[in-house]
Amino acid sequence: MGRLTLSFNWDAGNRGEIAPFKYVKDATIRNLRTQGKITSSSYDSQLSGLIMNAEGNTTISGCVSEVDLKGSSSLAGILQWPDGNAHITINDCLVKGTFHATYDLEGGKNRRICGFIAHMPLESTCTLNNCLYLGTNNALDYDESSDTFCWLNGIVNTLNNCYYLNACGEAQGEKITEEQLKSGHVAYLLQNGRDTQFWGQELDKDNEPQLTADAAKRVCKVEFAYKNKVAVTRYANQGGNVKLPTAKELLGADYDAQKSYKLAFENGFSETTAINGDITVNVTVSVVTDIDGVTADRSDTNTPVYDLQGRYLGISLDHLPRGIYIVGGKKVIKK
Question: Which stretches within the chain are classed as H helix?
Fold first, then answer.
């Protein structure tokens, strides 16, 4: 999907109600990135990374708000005010940037910092689908008017499949971690099983999900099942591959560091197997019992080689450092 970028660096002085779009009605905004900084010294700043006021049926899809906002209070990543009986739908949007409110009266508990929407009149509704909040903010845990996504004032205001890294006042959606962002887990969740490409990630390069139309960045899930239960999950791009799990990962609390294990992967699955879609791989774990079979260097082996944790290392000892390995069900010393 093509995406336009609107960049700015605005110091509004003592003026408030500042946003790239002051007012929209029955609008559709798609595939736009706002990027930059807005600062205001107004006693009631009301700043937004995208829209100030919205009326009617307004839909925002595939947008990124990466705007640093600094003002007294009322800071929003996407929308400040839905007016009257507005119906707001936000699909597949990402909010980043730093929100810093300077309001300190009443201990700062009414700074009103919201990741997506700052105000929700009782007559209006909002629905957020497959959205991600990765911003940082100085909202306090007890701030009664700050919310990670938006003020949910009724059952008609809903969050569907939305995630956050750092809460903004009241936590909303599902908490995720830096590791889950990097691994592809969150990108996979945001894809939400859809064939149309909205979210993706180039694993081992991108540290977080991207809004992209690049099919090469689609994330696939690989589940490793032990005794018919999924024990380990990995992620890969289409045509990529994954690192095999260890016996310790598969066995969990049943793992015994004093034992040696051999892992057998269904259909010969290995670290070179190309991933072409979601897949579940069954794994058989067995304990190596022939511990008396410790032999001298056997670098000419053509049988599968494992380390003492059961990780497959290839079919030869030639490329491996000195140590003890499992070859043909026996411990072998490479000197």
Answer: 178-183, 185-191, 247-251
**Alpha-carbon distance 251 to 2, whole Å?**
45
Residue ranges of the chain with pLDDT lower than 50? 291-301
Interacting residues of 184 by C-beta distance below 8 A, sequence separation 6+: 201, 203, 219, 235, 236, 237
Query: 171: phi > 0 → left, psi -120 to 50 → alpha, else beta; which?
Result: beta
Question: How far is 132 from 128, CA to CA, in rounded Å?
Answer: 10
What is the pLDDT, as a whole number, of residue 252?
94
Question: Do 309 and 246 form a contact (C-beta atoms < 8 A)?
Answer: yes
- pLDDT for position 20: 98
Pick from 321, 319, 298, 320: nearest CA to 329: 298
Domain boundaries, the chain: 4-175
pLDDT of res. 299: 45
Question: Could you give the 3-state DSSP secondary structure of residue 295?
Answer: strand
In sequence order, what are the beta bridge partners of 11? 39
DSSP string covering 267-288, please? GG--TTPPP-S-EEEEEEEEE-
Distance CA 180, CA 191 (A): 14
